[in-house]
Amino acid sequence: MVIKYKLIKESKECAARLGIVETPHGSFKTPVFMAVGTQATVKTLTKEELEELGSKIILGNTYHLWNQPGNEIIREAGGLHKFMNWDKPILTDSGGFQVFSLAKLRDIHEEGVYFRHHKSGKQLFLSPEIAMEIQNDLGSDIMMAFDECPPYPASYEYIKESTERTLRWAERSLQAHKNKTTQGLFGIVQGGEFEDLRKYSAEELVRMDFDGYSVGGLSVGEPKEIQNRVLSFTVPLLPKDKPRYLMGVGSPGMILDAVERGIDMFDCVLPTRIARHGSAMTTKGRLIVKNKEFERDFTPLDSECDCYTCTNYTRAYLRHLIKAGEILGMRLLSIHNIRFLIKLTENIRKAIQEDRFYEYKEKVYRDYGLHDSNKDF
Predict the structure, then answer these.
(1) Which of 280, 252, 250 is nearest to 266 (CA)?
(2) Known catalytic residue: 211?
(3) Global confidence as pTM
(4) Is the dihedral of CA 354, 356, 361, 367 positive or negative?
(5) Which of 173, 3, 183, 176 is nearest to 81 (CA)?
(6) Of 16, 25, 150, 293, whose CA is between 20 and 30 Å from 212?
(7) What is the 3-state secondary structure (H, E, C) of the chain?
(8) pLDDT tens digit string along 197-214?
(9) Which of 93, 137, 211, 376 is catalytic?
(10) Helix 195-208 crosses helix 224-234 at what angle (to 10 degrees)?
């Protein structure tokens, strides 16, 4: 296997676990949060800033990079690592989620998906073979098999048909993957909220022997209790000696809930997206920086944070930047939010090591105010 997982410690309290994932571009400890570099950049941040934040792996987006600048150009540049000057691990998604979340008009067939570009309206076609070709050109350390991300809610009949097709696409993804000695490939477990379909999907994917496994089709609008229930019966079906990845999750409570159930890897656009709208994650909960209450607040954004933003600037200054529409304000909030989630996973790893995961989870829930609402960020 190109991607190797080493289990360091299993929690005595729950299914949480501490591990190390080795890739062709270095290793990273898990649980881990991956900042999203959709267009070969984590929005507004440099490589050096990401390294200062403790980022060990980032995510690139196949759909967007395929459309701009094009996978051929990135291949000619020597791959995504050289193109964006990032020498640590990169994971690329397959483009499947964007097809099903951005494209208004799509036509799903056995061979693949016909759809319209989300901005230009240009007709496009994406299949397992094309998704693998693009990711092979990108040269990411971890690739994702092409799948359908079904909507929530959906009928059992629809999810069953979708899951079966996704399994056939998974086999085609394996067959089309050309760089098996330099790039790993993860399978994606689907099946909606239905336990028998999740079991069928997981067992079939494990039989195909991927480098790692993702739980897909969650964080698409379902209630938090359904997400937790699906993870509770799905994760135990996955191999203990391979990484487990929950796609699209980046809120503190959901990360903690998923780690409790055995998930190792997370990604989400949430920290940079909310930063652009003037919001921050702090150890005391969500903070809307542009609110008037911070106009004369000359304290740090988060007194417990060690990031560049919190050690150099005040809430009042950040509020001023956001209200003035200054890019620096968005950058500084992005720096903080990404550091917050990376630090969260660092603290989770420490808590697992010291057999106090539940103590730490309860502290975050209490301090962040997660017990007061089903909302999570």
Answers:
(1) 250
(2) no
(3) 0.96
(4) negative
(5) 183
(6) 150
(7) CCCEEEEEEECCCCCCEEEEEEECCEEEEECEEEEEECCCCCCCCCHHHHHHCCCCCEEECHHHHHHCCCHHHHHHCCCHHHHHCCCCCEEECCCHHHHHHHCCCEEECCCCEEEECCCCCCEEEECHHHHHHHHHHHCCCEEECCCCCCCCCCCHHHHHHHHHHHHHHHHHHHHHCCCCCCCEEEEEECCCCCHHHHHHHHHHHHHHCCCEEEECCCCCCCCHHHHHHHHHHHHHHCCCCCCEEECCCCCHHHHHHHHHCCCCEEEECHHHHHHHCCEEEECCEEEECCCHHHCCCCCECCCCCCCHHHHHCEHHHHHHHHHCCCHHHHHHHHHHHHHHHHHHHHHHHHHHHCCCHHHHHHHHHHHHCHHHCCCCC
(8) 999 999 999 999 999 999
(9) 93
(10) 50
How many CB atoms neighbour CB 190 within 10 A? 28
Active-site residue, from 257, 267, 302, 376: 267
- Strands 113-116 and 106-108, by their bridges, are antiparallel
Amino acid at 152: Y
Are 349 and 29 contacting, i.e. CB atoms less than 8 angstroms apart? Answer: yes
CB-CB neighbours of 223 under 10 Å: 11
Answer yes or no: 367 catalytic.
no
Q: What is the pLDDT of residues 140-154, one digit of tens each?
A: 999 999 999 898 999
pLDDT in tens, 157-167: 999 999 999 99
